[in-house]
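Hi U.,

Before I forget, here's the chain from the pilot set. I'm dumping it here mostly so it's searchable later in email.
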Amino acid sequence: MSDELDAQPEVTPDHDLRRYEIRVGDATAGFTQFIDSGDQRIFFHTEIEERYAGRGLAGTLIRAALDDTVAHGKRIVPICPFVAGFLDKHDDFKGFVDAVTPAAQQVVIESQR
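Structure:
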């Protein structure tokens, strides 16, 4: 277990599940979920497993997800509080963010049905 906790985190997209995962060793330490709608990628939920808390993995995960989103020409819509908080602290994504709108929220609601 100490090897797992010491392993370098790796972020990978899983487009089938519509999320980015952060793995530490062989374990999934967390994920951030999204919905694509037109040219927007709407981030609506992020989780980090409790045993990985306090290691900065949420920031690593979100930065990688946002970098990939921008690289693929998508706009960021931060419904998720983790993503919104990250964006508040990192101006480098400022030109790629769209406001959360009722339409974006509805896309997420519809996707959960």
